[in-house]
């Protein structure tokens, strides 16, 4: 059972209206310390609006919002120092050198250091953590697109945030840099108990990183759970594949564990290439979004 003191984000009946246009319709969710939550949804679903409200950059129309125990609409600089934000594109710091820039920005966080969290992150450690040690003395304008993206992440975490917002963080990264970024995310959550709210269009990334996935569609949360739990929700059957005596077999079942157990009981070590497949996150996502849109269309009639 989770400690209620570990709630880092609490959102209840969040609504946002622009004129007569409702963008968010009663959004509810919580995020706990050390949890990675991925917010998925089609363009225009309300993801950016939701995150901007949580970051304190946009006022909501209705509802209750608590971030790190504070209403973002009335938060101060002490609260903001506890947050980290990585945008899709950061302001250009072309004339700065990488380490010099991080040391400079880190200085703004020093007054907000606590007994529990020493701020800022040491610039050499941070440069190493994001894989820019070889480029620490380069001017930002000399970095490649992928290297600049690593710098964006470094800027977002320089103050050792308790809560980190990541907007498409691996856009423009090559596969190796993407893998290193994923390792950094795990380090932040495992070692520092950082809570992370992530938006991405990369469903494979969401599945690898997220403890929980929220799917937002037309301003409503239409699904909330782990990738595995969501796939079970839409697909009762799993596909069991195996080989036996050189032949390939496929069987669909709602009780894959029991079926595999019986399979080994019957054939033992003769079973080869065993694989149990459930619906992928992409299958799950598309099914849940289409289902929500169908319900929306029926309700609009």
From TrEMBL:
Where in the cell does this protein reside? Cell membrane
Q: Which GO terms describe its molecular function?
A: ATP binding; ATP hydrolysis activity
Task: Kindly give the membrane topology term recorded for this protein.
Answer: Peripheral membrane protein
Record bears the keyword ATP-binding = yes
Ranges for the ABC transporter domain?
A: 9-243
An example Pfam family from this entry, by short name, is: ABC_tran
Cellular component GO terms held in the UniProt record:
plasma membrane
Which keywords appear in this protein's UniProt record, sorted alphabetically?
Answer: Antibiotic resistance, ATP-binding, Nucleotide-binding, Transport
| Domain of life the protein comes from | Bacteria
One GO biological process term is: response to antibiotic
Establish whether keyword Nucleotidyltransferase is in the entry: no
**CDD domains (UniProt xref):** ABC_DR_subfamily_A
Alphabetical list of PROSITE patterns matching this protein: ABC_TRANSPORTER_1, ABC_TRANSPORTER_2
Identification of the protein by name: ABC transporter domain-containing protein
